[in-house]
């Protein structure tokens, strides 16, 4: 599976700064489904080409996922959602529109040609062009015939040429490659809407094929498609989230639950002797800020699926001295997927997060956290529905996005089952 990106913008070797990958080196990254390699087939001041090559293990795909049930499939050779995951992991800085050495160039449109060696396209060349040409690309598509008596196939070699920013090109590829394929190798849940809207910002809402792009990206899930299209039409999707969180905070403020949680979680992490701590679903960074004030926590990593939340979290550290700030790192990611960046930590805090997951996704969350990341200690909180009677103005759940609120017995049963499955000991407080 091969993607190349070429520029003739001079000096062309600045592409290495934009991708944060030195042209003089081979770069290899381990992924859940194989390995990704980045190398440069040419690197001169006049022309530079970076290649992203994926080595996919089809056996691992079948063993770890429920999407592909046959060992023999086309996934190792064609651009698919696997390529999108690799772009996010390997070119994450460029995808986010950032470059430490060339910040001004990251915001400058330059001549770029992206070439995908093999792309499966449900809908043929016509659909392929309908997806990319409205975005300003010159599209060259070569179909790979299957020979007699089968004729044309759904596989194409595709070149996309345009003068755009590198971040824009990568965001188009991230979203649209799985759309062409009309498949994804992982479960699609509510957090996938956030990724779609983040990477579709500025172009998806006005795309003439917006509806079919959204539908395919979300694996034809009607509820998710409806929600995504509503958010595209209605404007800033984070405004409603922020209103809901403000309402929840105002509801709980008289009982000081928000502060009490953070104090209790920090105390539990101290008792565990944790030095390297994860805050999963960190939101706008309240717990992160509290953890940072405790010198015993030497490395603190916050992760959230919302780019907006991470931006708000980043602002909390603007006035923090650089030496202290260096102990904190923010990651963009989703809780229900295995992520090697989360492995090896002393502890993970999951504070008021799981109730935002659809119940069918709790199994994937448990596998990703307890089965794959395997922190030595997990401190997890979730609302107690039996406590809600103490809120005289409350009807329904405490937060409009909560998918459930458990009784104490239900929480204890879930915690015991997870602990038994993954070799943890559980204590409920």
Mean pLDDT across the residues is 87
Shape: globular
| Count of individual helical segments | 17
Instruction: Record the strand order, biggest sheet.
Output: 2-3-4-1-5-7-6
Tell me the helix content: 25-40%
Describe the structure.
With 429 residues, this protein is an alpha/beta fold. The protein has helices spanning 15-19, 58-64, 81-90, 92-95, 103-106, 124-132, 166-181, 191-199, 210-217, 222-234, 237-252, 257-271, 286-292, 307-315, 322-325, 362-373, 408-422, and strands spanning 2-7, 27-31, 34-43, 48-56, 110-120, 138-143, 155-164, 276-280, 299-304, 328-332, 347-351, 377-381. The chain has a 7-stranded antiparallel beta sheet. Strands 10-9-8-11-12 form a 5-stranded parallel beta sheet, with helices on one face. The radius of gyration is 23 Å and the shape is globular. The protein starts with a strand and ends in a 7-residue tail after the last helix. The relative contact order is 0.08.
Supply database-style keywords:
single chain, 429 residues, alpha/beta, seven-stranded antiparallel sheet, five-stranded parallel sheet
Give the SSE map.
Layout: E1 2-7, H1 15-19, E2 27-31, E3 34-43, E4 48-56, H2 58-64, H3 81-90, H4 92-95, H5 103-106, E5 110-120, H6 124-132, E6 138-143, E7 155-164, H7 166-181, H8 191-199, H9 210-217, H10 222-234, H11 237-252, H12 257-271, E8 276-280, H13 286-292, E9 299-304, H14 307-315, H15 322-325, E10 328-332, E11 347-351, H16 362-373, E12 377-381, H17 408-422
Parallel strand pairs: 8-9, 8-11, 9-10, 11-12
Antiparallel strand pairs: 1-4, 1-5, 2-3, 3-4, 5-7, 6-7
Helix pairs in contact: 3-7, 7-9, 8-10
């Amino acid at each position: 599976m091969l993607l190349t990106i070429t520029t003739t913008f001079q000096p062309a070797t600045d592409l290495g700064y934009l991708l944060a990958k030195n042209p003089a080196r081979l770069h290899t990254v381990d992924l859940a489904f194989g390995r990704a390699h980045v190398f440069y087939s040419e690197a001169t001041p006049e022309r530079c080409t970076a290649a992203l090559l994926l080595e996919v293990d089809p056996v691992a795909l079948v063993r770890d996922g429920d999407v592909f049930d046959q060992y023999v499939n086309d996934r190792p050779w064609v651009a698919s959602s696997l390529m999108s995951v690799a772009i996010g992991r390997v070119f994450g800085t460029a995808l986010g529109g950032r470059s430490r050495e060339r910040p001004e160039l990251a915001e400058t449109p330059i001549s770029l040609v992206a070439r995908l060696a093999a792309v499966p396209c449900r809908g043929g060349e016509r659909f392929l062009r309908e997806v990319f040409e409205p975005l300003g690309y010159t599209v060259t598509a070569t179909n790979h015939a299957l020979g007699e008596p089968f004729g044309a196939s759904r596989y194409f070699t595709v070149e996309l040429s345009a003068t755009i920013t590198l971040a824009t090109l990568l965001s188009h590829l991230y979203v649209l490659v799985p759309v062409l394929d009309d498949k994804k190798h992982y479960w699609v849940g509510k957090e996938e809407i956030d990724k779609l809207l983040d990477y579709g910002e500025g172009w998806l809402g006005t795309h003439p094929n917006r509806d079919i792009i959204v539908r395919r990206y979300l694996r034809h899930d009607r509820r998710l498609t409806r929600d995504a299209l509503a958010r595209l039409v209605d404007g800033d999707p984070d405004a409603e989230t922020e209103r809901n969180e403000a309402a929840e905070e105002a509801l709980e403020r008289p009982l000081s639950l928000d502060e009490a949680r953070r104090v209790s979680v920090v105390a539990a992490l101290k008792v565990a002797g944790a030095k390297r701590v994860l805050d999963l679903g960190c939101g706008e960074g309240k717990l992160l800020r509290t953890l940072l004030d405790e010198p015993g926590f030497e490395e603190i990593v916050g992760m959230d699926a919302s780019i907006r939340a991470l931006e708000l979290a980043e602002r909390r550290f603007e006035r923090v001295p650089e030496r202290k700030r260096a102990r904190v790192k923010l990651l963009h990611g989703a809780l229900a997927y295995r992520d090697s960046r989360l492995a090896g930590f002393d502890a993970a805090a999951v504070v008021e997060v799981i109730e935002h997951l659809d119940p069918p996704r709790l199994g994937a969350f448990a596998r990703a956290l307890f089965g794959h990341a395997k922190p030595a200690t997990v401190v997890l909180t979730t609302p107690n529905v039996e406590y809600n009677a103490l809120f005289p103005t409350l009807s329904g759940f405490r937060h409009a996005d909560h998918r459930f609120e458990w009784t104490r017995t239900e929480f204890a049963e879930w915690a015991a089952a997870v602990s038994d499955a993954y070799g943890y000991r559980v204590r409920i407080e």
